[in-house]
Design goal:
Elements: E1 4-10, H1 12-29, E2 35-41, H2 45-52, E3 59-69, E4 77-82, E5 92-100, H3 104-114, E6 120-128, E7 141-145, E8 151-152, E9 168-172
Parallel strand pairs: 2-3, 2-5, 5-6, 6-7
Antiparallel strand pairs: 1-9, 3-4, 8-9
The protein binds inosinic acid and magnesium ion.
Magnesium ion (MG) binds next to strand 5.
Length: about 180
């Protein structure tokens, strides 16, 4: 089936406003604390780069790559492709995600990271597809809720492509996701 990037759903200037708003909220909530930002590779890399520059409290960054196997059952299993370099015990950890869909990947990751005893553990997601949620998940900061469409651009891919597009657009001709 051929794929086509259709109309822009979220233009880059709106994404910049989202990053500014989220950065201000995070800065306010973490006054007097230091944050450890964890970027979930690869999709969140563009969002991470923009968001971290809007956060005005001290930050360290680290990266993690996971692969989710959702299979046919309700619970997905997450395999760590790249683990963190840093020890998160006693740290204020903020997970930075590109988009939350079923929520299965992140709910498993949260369970895993909690066993490492962070001082706190929160989530910031640039985009959210609430209609698709299958796991119970409290997302602390959400950039924008979007309809149940497959989107690309601003770090989000389809088969590795389109991450470099500055705007977020709907991809037609697929019901799949990475
Ligand atoms: P979840 O476990 O279903 O929440 O999976 C979330 C992950 O699926 C995201 O981090 C993305 O990598 C990917 N994903 C979900 N929806 C989209 C989309 O619309 N475009 C691109 N990637 C997506
Ligand atoms: Mg992702």
């Amino acid at each position: 089936m051929s794929k086509k990037v259709d109309g822009i759903l979220v233009p880059s200037d709106e994404i910049q406003e989202i990053c500014q708003r989220l950065g201000a909220e995070i800065t306010r909530d973490y006054q007097g604390q230091e944050i450890l930002l964890i970027c979930i590779l690869k999709g969140a890399v563009v969002f991470m780069a923009d968001l971290m520059r809007e956060i005005k409290v001290p930050c360290e960054i680290d990266f993690m790559a996971v692969q989710s196997y959702t299979g046919t059952k309700t619970s997905g299993v997450v395999r760590i492709i790249k683990d963190l370099d840093l020890d998160i015990a006693g740290r204020h950890v903020l997970i930075v995600e590109d988009i939350i869909d079923s929520g299965l990947t992140l709910s498993h990751l949260i369970g895993l990271l909690k066993t490492r005893n962070p001082a706190s553990l929160k989530i910031v997601a640039c985009f959210d597809k609430p209609e698709r949620r299958r796991a119970k998940l409290d997302i602390d900061y959400i950039g924008k809720a979007i309809p149940d469409e497959f989107i690309v651009g601003y770090g989000l891919d389809y088969e590795g492509q389109y991450r470099n597009l500055p705007d977020v657009s709907i991809l037609c001709g697929t019901g799949e996701e990475d």
